Amino acid sequence: MVGPDTSLTGGVLAAVVLLALNSVVARLRLRWSRLRRLVEASPTLLVLRGEVLADHLRREGLDQETLEATLREHGVAELRDVEMAVLEIDGSISVVPIGVETRHVRRPVKYLKHA
Predict the structure, then answer these.
(1) What would the pLDDT profile of 29-83 be if each residue is shown by its tens digit?
(2) pTM (whole model) above 0.70
(3) Element (H or E) spanning 57, and its range?
(4) What is the distance between the alpha carbons of residues 92 and 26, in angstroms, rounded to a whole number?
(5) CB proximity list for 30: less than 8 A, separation 6 or greater
(6) Among 14, 52, 68, 102, which residue has the fewest nearby CB atoms (within 10 Å)?
(7) How deeply is 105 buried, as exposed, middle or buried, from its count of CB atoms within 10 A (0-12, 13-18, 19+)?
(8) How would DSSP label each residue in 19-55?
(9) Given CA atoms 64, 67, 71, 72 in this order, what sign does their dihedral have?
């Protein structure tokens, strides 16, 4: 990241530059919606009324097994019992079951890492 410089000073300088750049982008995205759309993700619908949206899964780099594991973590045994499942911007998957009282979880059940 800092080229051939492997000194402590070089590493600290690189970290400070990254933190400063992150801070600037975070503040600017609040002012300009165009920048916000560029740097922030949007929620992605993965399941709608029991039907998996395969192209959405593929676009997000997820597979059917990961989705099904997440549904089980939310207490849903079958895809047909899902009104909708959404990949949120923080990497968690929200699940809304059909005809079942919705439960609120205190923290996201699982964060997904993109390859």
Answers:
(1) 888 888 887 877 788 999 999 899 999 999 988 999 989 999 999 888 888 989 9
(2) no
(3) helix 54-60
(4) 21
(5) 36
(6) 102
(7) exposed
(8) HHHHHHHHHHHHH-HHHHHHHS---EEEEETTEE-HH
(9) positive
